[in-house]
Amino acid sequence: TKTLAHKFLGYALGRSLQLSDQPLLDRLQSELEKNDGKLSVLFDLVATSPQFRTQRCKDFSPAKYQAASR
Question: In whole angstroms, what is the distance from residue 47 CA to residue 62 CA?
Fold first, then answer.
């Protein structure tokens, strides 16, 4: 579960993991073990994490995003 959590979180965040991601990794591992390795638990925890919800792409521009969504 350690490798799965590490690889998935890195992929979801689009960056290498940092020391500040360790508490989230620990939580992902413990929740996966408690829930018999259900991937839905992993997806939910990552998608609701502060790291995922507050990330910004290097080329993020609100104007560009608004124009594309019209």
Answer: 21
Distance CA 35, CA 41 (A): 7
Q: Is the pLDDT of residue 58 over 60?
A: no
Please tell me the distance from the alpha carbon of residue 21 to that of residue 13, in angstroms, as a whole number: 10
If we measure between CA atoms, which residue out of 44, 37, 35 comes closest to residue 2?
37
Check residues 4 and 58 and name the one with the higher pLDDT. 4
Judge contact between 28 and 51, C-beta under 8 A. no
Q: How confident is the model at residue 1 (pLDDT cuts 50, 70, 90)?
A: confident
